[in-house]
From TrEMBL:
Major subcellular site: membrane
Keywords carried by this UniProt record: Membrane, Transmembrane, Transmembrane helix, Transport
Lineage, top ranks: Bacteria, Bacillati, Actinomycetota, Actinomycetes, Kitasatosporales
Major facilitator superfamily (MFS) profile domain span: 8-416
Domain of life: Bacteria
TM stretches of this protein: 42-62, 74-92, 98-120, 132-157, 163-185, 240-265, 277-295, 302-320, 326-349, 361-381, 387-412
Keyword Signal: no
InterPro entries: MFS_dom (IPR020846), MFS_sugar_transport-like (IPR005828), MFS_trans_sf (IPR036259), Sugar_transporter_CS (IPR005829)
Localization in the cell: Cell membrane
Name of the protein this chain belongs to: MFS transporter
Keyword Transmembrane belongs to the record: yes
UniProt topology in membrane: Multi-pass membrane protein
């Protein structure tokens, strides 16, 4: 039983590796593509943000489809899109074609966020759910770090003007491996129950989980579904909380990491690429630490306190943009460690606070909202660096972290003991930080 639960989490995490890979290769490939395709700064920003913009539509559309059609079908379809899109990047002829492919791949990333989180939440028992969901973000950082390292290695090894195509297409390899690993994954019993398919749900639970399903009382009325349900009186606070805290976490991260060599160079670092690799290593370590302590520290504290610490690190960089390299390195390391430790909650909170009927819809919507900020930040960073300087960009990141802390203090629940199918409103959060 534990092996099967772990297998589900690992296969779901494999999709997160692909997600991180698709987004991580852009930083190394974009400067080469810019030269080869003759991209303007605005064109480079659009392509850099394309996957994030695609994720917005993917989260909205495919999260809802996952709740309607089931987890298992969408679980495989999105990996096919990853694979095909990766290979198409080898043959695109101009910036417009590359933009379209990256948009479609971003939509698949948005779909996978919703699918993977819902499936793990519905198969995992309460005592393991937090760590298994948090591990999805660990896998994401593994994919992102591997892709970044591969891109830097390839660009230092060859000066072929078409090298950017192979860097972008490298995501085909993990996509194929994960697609094959996911074959044979059963449908979620919780989803089957929500559709009234009790016999199928019981058969899957007994075969794969070794337990009988608990009896479910018939609902007095059909459960609300779709995006409208997210803004019903029972769920609107959960929807706003999950969306806003996620947005406030990822916007500074993507704005900084996508253009890390440029940002680090502006801050005085002599070797931006080495600094980018070290930044990713700290991100991975912090993510592992967050996964290890999530049950002991609690969701709420793990969210609020890192927001305050990252705000402080970004403020120092903003007020002291040309300080000594040791100060820049310490601030980036602190930002990376605390941001990534709390980022595991991007998989945990949205998967726990929505009921089965709208779980994938809720995750997809929150992911979509978060990527609005990430896409805007990625698009504006190169222009912001040119127009205002790196100090102003860091101060804006600090403001977003503070906004995330305030929203979390007001609305963050402690849902570790909730059952995944719970549909009643969450209790009001305690005020401990």
């Amino acid at each position: 039983m534990r092996r099967f639960e772990t297998r589900v989490a690992v296969c779901a995490g494999g999709g997160e590796v692909c997600d991180g890979w698709v987004l991580g290769v852009v930083g190394a490939a974009l400067p080469l593509a810019r030269a080869d395709l003759g991209l303007s700064p605005m064109g480079a920003g659009l392509i850099g943000a394309a996957s994030l913009a695609g994720l917005f539509f993917g989260g909205l559309v495919f999260g809802r489809l996952t709740d309607r059609l089931g987890r298992q079908k969408m679980y495989l379809i999105d990996l096919l899109v990853f694979l095909i899109g990766s290979l198409l990047q080898l043959v695109v002829q101009d910036a417009a074609q590359l933009l379209v492919v990256r948009l479609v791949m971003g939509a698949a990333v948005g779909a996978d966020y919703a699918i993977a989180g819902a499936l793990v939440a519905e198969f995992a028992p309460p005592r393991r759910r937090g760590r298994l969901l948090a591990s999805l973000i660990v896998f994401w950082y593994v994919g992102y770090t591997l892709a970044t390292g591969l891109g830097i290695a390839l660009t230092s090894w060859s000066d072929d003007p078409a090298l950017w195509r192979w860097i972008l297409a490298s995501s085909a390899l993990p996509s194929l491996v994960v697609l094959l690993a996911r074959l044979g994954t059963p449908e979620s019993p919780s989803w089957l129950l929500s559709k009234g398919r009790v016999a199928e749900a019981e058969a899957i639970s007994e075969r794969w989980l070794g337990r009988r399903l608990r009896p479910v009382e018939p609902a007095a009325a059909p459960a609300a579904t779709g995006h409208a349900a997210l803004f019903s009186r029972a769920y609107v606070r959960r929807t706003l909380f999950a969306s806003i805290f996620w947005l406030c976490q990822v916007t500074p991260f993507f704005a900084i990491s996508t253009f890390a060599p440029q940002v680090l160079g502006s801050l005085g670092a002599r070797d931006g690429e080495v600094g980018e690799l070290l930044l990713n290593a700290f991100l991975l370590v912090g993510c592992l630490a967050g996964t290890a302590v999530i049950n002991r520290v609690g969701r709420r504290k793990l969210l609020i306190r890192p927001f305050l610490v990252t705000a402080g690190a970004l403020l120092v960089l903003g007020l002291w943009p040309h300080g000594p390299q040791w100060a820049v390195a310490v601030c980036f390391a602190v930002f990376a460690l605390f941001h990534s430790a709390s980022s595991v909650l991007q998989a945990v909170y949205p998967s726990e606070v929505f009921p089965t009927e709208i779980r994938a819809t809720g995750i997809g919507f929150a992911a979509a909202v978060s990527r609005v900020g990430a896409a805007v930040g990625t698009f504006l960073v190169p222009m912001g660096l040119a127009a205002w300087g790196v100090g102003a960009v860091m101060v804006l990141g600090c403001a977003l972290s503070l906004a995330g802390a305030l929203v979390s203090i007001a609305w963050a629940p402690e849902p570790g003991d909730l059952e995944p199918a719970r549909t009643s409103p969450l209790p009001a959060p305690s005020r401990s930080v």
